[in-house]
Design goal:
This protein folds into two domains: about 150 residues, NAD(P)-binding Rossmann-like Domain (Rossmann fold, 3-Layer(aba) Sandwich); about 170 residues, Lactate dehydrogenase/glycoside hydrolase, family 4, C-terminal (L-2-Hydroxyisocaproate Dehydrogenase, Chain A, domain 2, Alpha-Beta Complex). The longest helix is centred in the last third of the chain and has 25 residues. Helix 4 crosses helix 12 and helix 5 packs across helix 12. The protein has a six-stranded parallel sheet. The protein starts with a strand and ends with a helix. The protein has about 325 residues and is α/β, with parallel strands linked by helices. The chain is globular. It has twelve helices and 14 strands. Helix 2 links the parallel strand 2 and strand 3.
Length: about 325
């Protein structure tokens, strides 16, 4: 068997991590022959809960799980990592303004970025899940100058999967029959779910999603708003935020980094906007359509952007620029 890889999950006592760890431990993400050392980080008050999670992982007896390490110390958690999945963040509390949320998270992700820079392998792949994910990822990236910017990404795959599902439900097919939707911009209510480049397979025949749906008002209306507001709808229904679907999206995101995207398909991922071909301002962590090969992403080029899409893409870029400006005031403080 190959040498074990070290995979960190932060916020490890939380509900997303609880849904995520089995898939990492059982080989569903990195392969059935790839041993894994699973490193779990959480804050000190959560260490009792984390002890229980470690026990459950041991009791699951996964052949690929070589070791489990639970800790509240960054110097332990970030040591020699191959993959860092940064799930933990400060949640928005009642009465908290967005500026307060950004300030709290800048502190967390500045510290974790510095720990990545100091302790992890320079080849580490970093996936930021904790919200606001785009700006948290940019903060970590800026705090880890010795690690290539291209090694950092944030999760917009949950939004991508939600978009696939909405088209599939509309057409009465499975989500696997739909491909190449795009999430542009921020993982927030300004994100732009774009079906204009998507395709669908219906009874073995491939066609554009727009031709299959035959309802432009739905594509430009309810489809977009449903995906944008899906997280809030889940919270309203189950009184808790998305966990199972978020964990599945993390697995999809990390697996594609590790093994690459299928031929002819692209996925959505928040990455650094430097050098992008779509007029998005540089220096932002923005969701684009990407293909991945040899653990390296590449923004898909040559997609036609109409006036409707341009307006939506610019709106979410504006929000990201405002978030960045606010966060970086705290970062330099």
């Amino acid at each position: 068997m190959p040498e074990a890889i070290r995979v960190l999950v932060t916020g490890a006592a939380g509900q997303i991590a609880y849904s995520l760890m089995q898939s990492i431990a059982n080989g569903s993400v990195f392969g059935k022959d790839q041993p894994v050392v699973l490193v779990l980080l959480d804050i000190t008050p959560m260490m009792g809960v984390l002890d229980g999670v470690v026990m459950e992982l041991h009791d699951s007896a996964h052949p690929t799980l070589k070791e489990v390490i639970g800790t509240d110390k960054e110097e332990v958690a970030f040591k020699d990592l191959d993959v860092a999945i940064l799930v933990g963040s400060m949640p928005r509390k009642e009465g908290m303004e967005r500026k307060d949320l950004l300030k709290a998270n800048v502190k967390i992700f500045k510290s974790q970025g510095a720990a990545l820079d100091k302790y992890s392998k320079k080849t580490v792949r970093v996936v930021v899940v904790g919200n606001p994910a785009n700006t948290n990822c940019l903060t970590a990236l800026r705090s880890a100058p010795s690690i290539p910017k291209e090694n950092f990404s944030c999760l917009t795959r949950l939004d991508h999967n939600r978009a696939l599902a909405q088209i599939a439900l509309r057409l009465g097919v499975s989500s696997g029959d739909v491909k190449n939707v795009i999430i542009w911009g921020n993982h927030s209510s300004t994100q732009y779910p774009d079906a204009s480049h998507a395709s669908v397979n219906i009874e073995g025949k491939e066609s554009s999603a727009l031709d299959a749906v035959k309802d432009d008002s739905w594509i430009k209306g309810d489809f977009i708003s449903t995906v944008q507001q899906r997280g809030a709808a889940v919270i309203k229904a189950r009184k808790l935020s998305s966990a199972m679907s978020a964990a599945k999206a993390i697995c999809d995101h990390v697996r594609d980094i590790w093994f690459g995207t299928p031929e002819g398909q692209f996925v959505s991922m928040g990455v650094i906007s430097d050098g992008n071909p779509y007029g998005v301002p540089e220096g932002l962590l923005y969701s684009f359509p990407v293909t991945i090969k040899d653990k390296t992403w590449k923004i898909v080029e040559g997609l036609k952007i109409d006036a409707f899409s341009r307006e939506k893409m610019d709106l979410t870029a504006k929000e990201l620029q405002e978030e960045k400006d606010t966060a970086f005031e705290f970062l330099s403080a």
